Amino acid sequence: MQPIHQPESSARLSGEPTVHASASVVNSHAGAWTSIGPGNKIIESTIGDYTYTMDEVTMNYCEVGKFTSIASHVCLNPVQHPMDRVTQHHMTYRRAGFGFAATDDEEIFDWRRDNRVTIGHDVWIGHGAIVMKGVRVGHGAVIGSGSVVTKDVEPYTVVVGVPARPIKVRFPAETAAKLLQIAWWDWPREVLEERFFELSDVETFIQKYGG
Ligand SMILES: CC(C)(COP(=O)(O)OP(=O)(O)OC[C@H]1O[C@@H](n2cnc3c(N)ncnc32)[C@H](O)[C@@H]1OP(=O)(O)O)[C@@H](O)C(=O)NCCC(=O)NCCS
Hints:
Layout: E1 18-19, E2 24-26, E3 29-30, E4 35-36, E5 41-43, E6 46-47, E7 52-53, E8 58-60, E9 62-64, E10 69-70, E11 75-76, H1 106-113, E12 117-119, E13 124-125, E14 130-131, E15 136-137, E16 142-143, E17 148-149, E18 157-160, E19 165-169, H2 173-182, H3 189-195, H4 202-209
Parallel strand pairs: 1-4, 2-5, 3-6, 5-8, 6-9, 7-10, 8-11, 9-12, 10-13, 11-14, 12-15, 13-16, 14-17, 16-18
Antiparallel strand pairs: 18-19
The protein binds coenzyme A.
Coenzyme A is lined by residues 69, 71, 126-127, 142, 144-147, 158, 160-161, 167.
């Protein structure tokens, strides 16, 4: 047996988004300390500071908050085809590529833009989860591996399954309310650095900063 030499697993991030060379990103924005993983496909989305995506994540027309963790093979907003047309094949709207018209049918793309997915701050989205069109996921929520989320998710709530249903909350309601009020995700970097080690104990954290 030979030792396996692993490349460095967590390269230092920075104020600029770190995007893996194999990712495809179109008309999107990302904040500081963000990382976009291998094989991602991101279209017309905004990704908040510190949020990261693992491998093969697909994201279409999304607003993603800060400090959100997105596992591999997650799909946020799989786009819809027009089921009411004679054919739902994409030639009716990607018609230029097929030589049927000079331009594509923007109506379909605008319809998709109108059904954005919104993910809050500090959300954890498990492996292979899918979040369907128009869904809003609250701050601090958890989406279990393999879930298909079809309805909005309340803050600090854990949802699992197909379709995803709430199974528990991360914290009692008063604690969650305090965290939402503190909104630590909006602290400037220097404040975060100063208080960084306090993030691991929720009780003392809300006693100190919960007002
Ligand atoms: C959702 C999750 C956080 C819950 O973890 P937990 O609090 O330890 O929950 P438990 O394992 O005690 O499970 C609680 C119940 O939910 C069910 N459950 C847990 N995760 C589930 C999932 N992803 N899909 C469907 N059901 C799930 C369990 O079967 C159990 O059901 P029961 O009460 O009928 O027995 C965890 O299961 C999960 O999916 N984590 C994501 C992991 C991941 O994808 N990581 C990627 C790298 S970041």
